[in-house]
Structure formats: C-alpha cells, structure tokens
Model the fold of this input.
Amino acid sequence: MNEAPRRNHAPGHDDEAGPSRRTVLWTTGAAGAGLGLGGPLTAGGTAAAAPKTKATGPSAAAAAPEAGGRTMIGVPFERRSTVRIGIIGLGNRGGSMIDLFLAVPGVRVVALCDPVKDKVAKAAKKVTDAGRPAPAVYTHGDHDFENLCKRADIDFVYAATPWDWHFEMAKTALLNGKHVGVECPLSLRLEQLWELVNLSERTRRHCMQLENCCYGRNELRVLRMAHAGLFGELLHGAGAYIHDLRGLMFDPAYYEGPWRRLWHTRLRGDLYPNHGFGPVANYMDLNRGDRAVRISSVGTPARGLAAYRKEHLPPNDPSWKESYIESDRTISLVQTAKGRVIRLEHDVSTPHPYSRINSLAGTKGLFEDYPERIYIEPDQSNDAWGDFGQYAEWDHWLWKEHPNPPGDHDGMDYMLVFRLMQCMRLGLVPDFDVYDAATWTAPVPLSDLSIKANGAPQEIPDFTRGLWKKARPGMDSHQPEE
Done:
C-alpha cells in the first residue's frame, strides 16, 4: 500500500466499504427515533426491551445497569505464541488492514468473511501469497460471520463493516468467547454500549475500539509530553473529524450502497467522534483518574449534501429521495470530573481541508496540530510558535522502534496492529479497553440528544462504575521484553 501524506488523507474507518449486500437496519428518514434511550434493534429492525436502569427520564441515559461481572480493567490477554485472526468485512478498510496483520510476526489469518465473494477471494490470495495456509472463507449471506465466530481456532475477531453491524458482530464474537476489535463507532445506541460493557465483563473477553489515531506519531509524542508535565496542569483540548466526504458518499463504487450517507438522514449529532476524542481522552487520562461527565452539542443547518447532490447528481438518482438532517458542522463541549473541557467537531459535508484539530493546553503552554506547532514556556516566548520537530526525543518507543512503518495513514494503522498483536502474544493488558470504547463512542447518541434539546447538557455514563478514580496505565506504555 502507498503511504498517504499525514495532512491530506483521513486516517481511518470512514472508508470501510464493507459488505455491499447487508441490509440497512434502520430505514431512511427514521431520524434516529428514540436513539440512545430505546431498546436495541432485533434482526427484523424492531425495538427490543432496553436494559433496566436505576433511573428514568432525562438523566436515564447516564444510569448504569447492573454489572455483567468483574471489571475488565487491568485484565491481561492470555499469552500465546501465535495470534489467530478472523476478519469480517473486506471492503476498503478490511481489505487493506489484512496486509498489516500479515506483516506482523506471530499472527495467522485463519478465516475471512464477506458476502462479496470476489473480495474474499482477493483477500485469501494475499494470505497464500504471503506463504501462509489458505484461510477458511465465509461468503454465504449477511449472517455467515456468526459461523466464523463459532470457530474454535480463532483468538481475535476484527470487524470492518458498515456501522449498522458493529454492535451485532462484537456481541456475537464475545458470546463465542473471542476477543474482538471493531472500527469506529462501536455502536450508535447508548444501551448497546452498556450491553457490550456487560458482555465483556461476563465473557472475560476484551472488546475494543480500534482507534488508529491514538497511535499517530504526533499523538503519542504529545501524550508522553503531557504525562511528563511539559504542558503543566492540563486545562483543555480539542479533537475533530473534518473531512470533505461529499464526493465519496455519493460514489457507489466507494461506499457500496448508500449506507454511509444514510446516517445523515437519521442523526443530527456527531457521527464520528472517536478520531478526535480518543487521543485527547488519553492525554487527560480519562477513565484513569478523570472521566467525561457531560456533553453539550450544537449543530448548523444541514445544507452541504443537498447542495452537492443538486450540482452533481441527475434528477433521477435515488439519492433525491433522501432528506438530510445531520448538522453540517457539529460542535460539542465535553466537561470532565476535574473541570477540564474538550471540544469535539464533526464536518464531512462542506468544503474544508482535512483536520483532526488535535490540540492540548495547560498552565505551561499548548500544542496545536494541522499544522503542527507548539508554545510552551520557557522554550517559547514573545507569542512566537515553536518547532514541534525539536521535541522528537519525546517520541513513543513504538515510533523509535518502527520509524518507517508500512501501511496507510502515515503508519498509525501498522502501529495499532503491531501493538495489539504484541499485547496478545505476550499476555499484556491492552492499551485501551471496552470502557474506553464506550466512552469515546457515547458522544454519537448523546450529541444527537443534546442538539434536539437545544444544546442542553447530557450526562455521559460512567462505564467504569466508579473505577475511573484510580490512576492506571494507558497508552503511555513501556517497551516490553519479547
């Protein structure tokens, strides 16, 4: 794969073309009715009963259901010499990530699943071309992934499919005793986030949001600098997903079917907070001494997709039946238990150079990305930005060990895969867990609720059930001995 420039290519999960024949669980125009407070959808698309909580009414979204079992905080993987992988979804994202799994020592791709047989055949050839045994293939309809998850020779299931399927696939993997990692968002419904937390605890298997941006060179350097106190006491930060996807969302050859675009007919909130929220949450040790407690969101009118359609699509295109409601620019403010503030932004519908903002500020100075620059005392003065490149000594050990990693997105994809597989082989605690996954994804349903309530703050659940108060390691790890 060609390595894309850091500043003009998106790092991640929006390009999961995934299976093209999968049914859309929510119909166009549903506008996310009851999102975050209703029950999970059944296979037929109807609502099942929501898990019982300790409260009802406006604050019910933050109430915790009964625990599914002992916490998964600090639980290591089982040590193994070889990590056996099953991959679900072989579109743009899954079809490229398989190259990285094959590039990491001690990993075997055992099984592949996608309803599109040509994609599975292409991915299987990559495996055999790498000199590995031919993988088992699952191509018989939308639910054949269930058979993949039942295999006894798989340790970890990786899901890179349209968002509608993330929850169901993660749940199926956990119930079959597999560790699982999904592309973001983990789920778009709050009660499903709680269900995955409980299932992870009950099955004693990790369920992770595979957030590649947490492994960016800049992100990991800022993380280590923040933990070393170079920014002083941390006060505020910002993260975003600002990426002009208009052309891709109307391109049936890129997103097979309209699944990505249809979410703009269902939700008004931040559809994709993880890329921006994950790194800043790590800087501030959320769930490790601090936590996100509430979110308030506002959104602009939705104009961009309709304007693009008018200019570029013929009048008989099926997209003319769609009514877009998702705010072109969503801005959210998250406050933490320590009083810190995190700004999140989302915009994929208007012209704008790519940005994740990625900023962090404290009592001694700040870092801002896109373009990268720094101002910390006493190194800088007189209102003049400093050169972030002069702080390369603070690079994470992963980037010192792998200064020129393969793969897309400036190597952060490879870093994610390498580190996850390393933790599984050596029996280490993962860098992030199901509580992080749920926290980073909670802004999806809660920002929608906040916008509908004219910006009223929404409580963010404490998915750790109070264990966030205890400091613990995260991504600022030490290099292990192999």
